[in-house]
Amino acid sequence: MEYDAFTSLTREKDCGDPEALASLVRDKDLFVMPGVLPDACIFSGAAPRVIHGDRTHSLKDLRQGSAQPLTRLGQRYLAAINASLAIQTREMLFRCGASKGTHVFIEGGFSRNAQYCELLAALCPDCTIALTNLREGTSMGAALLAWMVLDHKDLAAIGRGFSIETRRIVAGECGDLEGYERAFRAHLDA
User: Fold this and answer.
1) How far lies 177's CA from each of 23, 118, 121, 171, 184, in Å?
2) How far apart are the first and last CA of the chain?
3) Which residues of 101-135 are buried (b: 16+ CB within 10 A; e: fewer)?
4) Any idea of the CA torsion for 136, 142, 143, 145, to the nearest 10 degrees?
5) Distances (CA, A) of 169 to 46, 93, 127
6) What is the pLDDT of residue 65?
7) What is the mean predicted confidence (pLDDT) over 149-177?
8) If DSSP codes are grouped into helix, strand and coil, which group holds residue 39?
9) pLDDT digits (tens, 9 = 90+) for 66-116
């Protein structure tokens, strides 16, 4: 929902522009802050907004403004959305106990967002970030659970009955991503 809410504010299509990402991370002047669903936000109390330079625009105000007010920010804005989502995902992973050697699998729609996947891999260098060939992991999990119950099989037995293809994501060159994340987090506290 975060991605959809913020991408609805631009006519630009996300093409994962590496130059836009490099500019975003270098300049540290554009941030998409989370909180579209306040009760589900990993950063409790965060207010959804876009910070550009010294100006802050709430999601509510942006939605009430012109139809797609952030189109002028181009691919940098979309890179800021992807960076925000990768930072949020990293936070969730580590709060759930991800540590060195953890394998993280991305499936569904976000498996097609190469910039998000590469940012997540860069933010989690000690984890293996991989894509799967699954379209919907939740549906697959529900089907596997039903199979286990119906056939009275344990997880290991079910696991031998199918395979999932994976492809590891290699972190791209992201510049001072740690510095960008620090600046992002400073805005959370502001």
Assistant:
1) 11, 12, 11, 11, 10
2) 23
3) eeebebbeebbebbbbbbbbbbbbeebebbbbebe
4) 140
5) 29, 16, 10
6) 79
7) 90
8) helix
9) 768 899 999 999 999 999 999 999 999 999 999 999 999 998 888 899 999
Superfamily of domain 2-133+167-189: ATPase, nucleotide binding domain (3.30.420.40)
Is residue 47 within 8 A of residue 58, CB to CB? The reply is yes
d(CA 58, CA 69): 12
- The CA distance from 73 to 126, in Å, is 33
Strands 103-106 and 128-132: parallel
Residues 6+ apart with CB under 8 A from 22: 173, 175
Query: Residues for the chain: how many in total?
Result: 190
* Cβ-based burial of 32 (10 A; exposed 0-12, middle 13-18, buried ≥19): buried
pLDDT of residue 186: 96
Say if CB 115 and CB 79 are below 8 A apart. Answer: yes
Tokens of 119: 């940012």
Non-local (6+) Cβ contacts of 149 within 8 A are: none
Tokens 């936000």 found at: 41
Q: Which two tokens stand for residue 58?
A: 């709430």
Dist CA 183 CA 10 (whole Å): 24
